[in-house]
Write a structure and sequence with these properties.
alpha+beta, five-stranded mixed sheet, 4 helices, 21% strand, globular
């Protein structure tokens, strides 16, 4: 594993331009966020308890990032759980061990926070990507579900809700 002069740390506000570049590689079809429009979102992320944007840099260049969220819990004896999202490595820096080192660092943070598990969902069906996650220690043994808000439609009560009472 060639990690060169790899540095892993929590991202700060000054990392926003490089993070936006990395996220562009992750989701190239997403609407473009300018620094001005992304700045309030970054402020919220940095202020959110239990949420950490981890960034891997080589010679001060951002090469990979993950988001780790430690979520409080009332099961498992109150042990929190972790969620990793937005895992991305710049194309020019892949296959050098950077993302694996970043994920391992995320695990260390989660275990220090007493998380009983760390979850990650991937939309990838690429066997190489799935093998990468397995090699990091993830086990593919659960069924994941998601729902996305329909574009342009108002928010409605779900058919799985039995009753919604608002006020009296």
């Amino acid at each position: 594993m060639d990690t060169g002069s790899l540095t892993i740390r929590a991202a700060g506000k000054s990392d926003l331009p490089q993070l936006l570049d990395l996220y562009r590689e992750l989701q190239p079809d997403d609407p473009v966020l300018t620094l001005g429009s992304a700045s309030p979102h970054m402020d919220q992320i940095l202020a959110h308890p239990g949420m950490t944007l981890l960034i891997a840099t080589v010679d001060q260049l951002a090469v990979a990032t993950i988001t780790l969220i430690v979520i409080p819990n009332l099961t498992r004896g109150g042990a929190p759980y972790g969620l990793m999202e937005n895992v991305v490595t710049a194309k020019a820096h892949r296959k050098r061990g950077y993302a694996g080192a970043l994920i391992q660092h995320g695990f260390e943070i989660a275990w220090k926070a007493d998380c009983y598990k760390v979850m990650l969902l991937s939309g990838s069906t690429d066997p190489e990507t799935l093998d990468f996650y397995r090699n990091c220690g993830f086990v593919q043994n659960k069924t994941g579900f998601q729902i996305r808000r329909p574009s342009g439609e108002p928010v409605r009560a779900s058919s799985c809700a039995h009753a919604i009472v608002i006020g009296r």
